[in-house]
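Researcher: Next sequence.
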Amino acid sequence: MAEQDTLFTKIINREIAADIIYEDDICIAFRDIAPQAPLHVLLVPKQVITKLSESSQQQQALLGHLMLTAPKIAAQEGHAKAFRLVINNGAEAGQSVFHLHIHIIAGRDFSWPPG
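Model: Next structure:
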């Protein structure tokens, strides 16, 4: 497996099936296979960034696009008023796929602080 090949690149390349609910030139969104809420979608950039802390200034537009796309997806799925975005950065924070992704979760009450 090449360094850039992740589970998510295989989904992007249609090598692995996923329940894709949104796609544009920059990102793709699909339902999580182990949902933690009635809505649990992963929003993934097509460009591989291992984790948020390894992003660069050159990826600012991409990161902004993700943040502006997430509410559109939540609204599309019927959760425009209340949703949570989660980015795990590193294994100790719960990241298991090292390709940056945003969890969009909604449809139940959430406590604070999380986790």
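Model: The helical segments are 7-12, 60-76. The two ends are 32 Å apart (CA to CA).
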